[in-house]
Structures are given as C-alpha cells and as structure tokens.
Amino acid sequence: MSLTLGLYQGPPVMGDPEAGLARLQRQLTAAAAAGARMLVAPELFLPGYNRPDLHAALAQPMGGSWCRRLAGMAREAGCGLTVGWAERDGDAVYNAATAFDRDGTILGHYRKIQLFGPMEAASFAPGGSYCLFDLDGVKTGLMICYDVEFAPHVRALAERGARLLLVPTANPAGFEHVSTAFVPARAAEMDLTIAYANFCGDEAGLAYGGRSLIAGPDAQVIAAAGRAECLLVATLGPEPDRALRSTQLADYRKV
Fold it and tell me: Which residue of the set 67, 145, 200, 203 is catalytic?
C-alpha cells in the first residue's frame, strides 16, 4: 500500500462551525501541499462533540450547506477529506462521518454504531451498517471513535476486505490507552492500517487526550501526535514482512 494520509489534530470549534470550516480549509491546503491524498479530522468536528445543546439544534441533512462547503473545499485543495459531523435525517440525529474525494464527490458516509456514554445516547440514534469504499485502489472503511475499540467491528470490516480504516475520534484525556494499545492491537489483529484523528484542548469541561496516530498492520506506529494541535502527514508502506503479519482472520477456529 502506498498512500499518503494527513491527520488533523486540533481544538474543538467551540460551537462556531464557520470558524471550524475556515480552519479545515487551511489544514486541507497544507495537507495537499505536503502530498496527502486524504485528510482525516476529528469526530463531530461540526458543530462540536461535547456540545449536546447544539447537536439537534445545528444538525444538518446530507447535502446541506456543510456538505456542500466541505465538498467544495476538498475540490479546491485537490485533497480528500474525512470529517465527523452531526447529521439530521427526519426526527433522528446521527453522529456521522463522511469521506469526500478530492473532486468533492462522496466516497462513503457512516453513522456511529457504538454510542459512548449517556451524552451520546441522549443526543444520537445509533447507526446500523458498515461503510466501505475504494480509495485509490485501497479498500477503506469508516469508523468513529468507540467503534474501533470493538474487535468484532474491526473484524467485520476486515472480512469485507478492508485494508485501511479512517477513524475520526473525540477521545478524552485519561483514555490514552486507546491510542497506545487498542488501535495498534486492532490493526495488528486484522492485518490492516488504522488512521485515528483526535481533538486536543478542552471543550465545555471535557479535556481531550490528543495522541492521534496511524498504526500499521504490524502494530507499529507510522506517525503519532502529542497533545498539541498538529497536522500529521505520512506515507503508508512499504508493507511489513508477510511472515510477521497476523493471519488471525484466516486461522480463527470457532468452538
């Protein structure tokens, strides 16, 4: 796999989607200049994660102004964009993520299956299906935050052929083991690569842990952030030695 990815780790938009869109545009331009094919941004970047007062109030439908703006930004930069946002569909609101291609078309759209904690359960309806798409010949799946901590969900995507997972997240401080242990383990178990993009800073009393990373199929960290705002750009590959890679997907025996 030879694919250059960008991960944007930044502070929440503090309930100001316009400021968030402007910041994303700057990060997309920088990622494209560094050769990135796709930029991954955090969970519920629009309008904010720890803002249940805004989720239903500001949620937009597919094809709304946020989608049009995001598609236009990707097209203008010539770089794909995967970002989390609050999606309204009738009376339901979903914690969603959409992957836009570099020409602005939608590659994939996903609604979070594993809602985390009482705030998410009160704000959102759970999703009910997986999302897979082709990214320059690489079978790619979307997940959101807590989803990737469940080995059965990662396995389900691997069984469907996924070689890369893009994961917008809003992981709080104190849960750094998700970055240091869970994400590399999920990648190694199912012989794929995971790109995990988190917030940093604070939002309405919630501190984020940062530690965004890309983990390869040998559990090695390809690129990683600390706790501050940053843009990571890394090229995936070369593939690790086949003899060192997990064959759990083929070898698993049910008893």
Answer: 145
112 as an active site residue: the answer is: yes
Residue 243 belongs to a domain: no
Domain range enclosing 198: 3-237
Per the structure, the count of domains in the chain is 1
CB 195 within 8 A of CB 165: yes
Say which residue the tokens 């946002």 belong to: 85
Question: Is 145 tagged catalytic?
Answer: yes
Q: Does some domain include residue 32?
A: yes
Determine which one of 112, 120, 149, 200 is catalytic: 112
**Residue 248 located in a structural domain:** no
**Does residue 35 contact residue 4 with C-beta atoms inside 8 Å?**
yes
State the pTM of this model. 0.97
Residue 251 lies in a domain: no
Taking the C-alpha atoms of residue 196 and residue 37, their distance in angstroms, rounded to an integer, is: 16
For the domain that residue 201 is a member of, what is the CATH number?
3.60.110.10
**pLDDT tens-digit readout, 24-47:** 999 999 999 999 999 999 999 999
Q: Is 97 helix (H, G, I), strand (E, B) or coil?
A: strand
Q: How many CB atoms lie within 10 A of CB 207?
A: 15
